[in-house]
Amino acid sequence: MEMMRTHSGKLRAIGYDAGKRTLRVTLEDGNTLEYTNVGESLWRDFKNAGAQWSYYRDNIEDTFSCLRVSHQAATSSSSVPARNPLDDLFK
Question: What's the CA angle centered on 29, arms 46 and 22, to 5 degrees?
Answer without folding.
Answer: 35
